[in-house]
Amino acid sequence: MTRLVLVHAHPDDETITCGGLMARAVGAGWDVTLVTCTLGELGEVIPPELKHLEGSDELAPHRAEELGKACAALGVTDHRLLGGRGRWRDSGMVATGEGIRAAEPDDLAEGAFANRADVDLQVHQLTELLEELEPDVVVSYDAGGGYGHPDHVRAHEIAGGAVERIDPLGERVALYATAAAHDEVDAGLARLRRRAWLPLPVPPVEDLPTVPDAEITTRVVLGPARVRKLAALRAHATQISVLDDGSDPPAFALSNGLAQPVTGSEGFVLLRGPDGGLGALSA
After folding, report:
1. CATH assignment, 3-281
2. pLDDT tens digits, residue range 243-264?
3. Mean pLDDT in the chain?
4. CA-closest candidate to residue 227, choices 238, 242, 205
5. Domain residue spans in the chain?
6. Which residues of 81-104 are buried (b: 16+ CB within 10 A; e: fewer)?
């Protein structure tokens, strides 16, 4: 049995980038574990009726409930919080002014996941989990954290560090980064712009974190698993709005109010280890 471990920074990151992969892996009989590093305590809340949660101590437990519902929609039954509940907190971010890109705040609070002094402990905590789980495939982010969020960057750092510790020669564990294929996203955006009913603006592809299609080493075609991914996106109601009238592709929006396509495949870039770890799900 193939064992897959996904290392994500906040609740909802797993569904946006890997929801289809997770659903397809479960359907293929893989052993799937999701590791979430924080509960997204500083997340912005979209629905007016839930806006009172923003900035309060109630947001983290609420997002934990949303994550549980999302995992259930994807069929994932093994979920871990790095270091235990409440050990690491959302670091927050600042906008860079360059499309949907983020950077680290000037001041990080105590316990913030991105604090430099804590990286060795975080690698140790994740290493212990990976030693227990013995994964064949680990998925996280690229060195830039996808769009620059400091917690995504840290998740990349500790995923790479922990995989190197359990597989120092890179012979057994395949480490992948999530990646959105530029041309597929661009085509999806173009289709969204043709929908008169869409209530939100559609950004140019240059504003989104994508990579050239040629750099994608594995594409996981979602097929029917996209229905599960949409259900999981809806579960993260504080963070995500789903826009779906039955057209292809459906869309989602974050707190920035920009419509993005839920594409028909998810892309991944092999960073380390044996090629082909996700190959069985690429068809």
Report:
1. 3.40.50.10320
2. 999 999 999 999 999 999 999 9
3. 95
4. 242
5. 3-281
6. bbbeeebbbbbbbeeeeeebbbbb
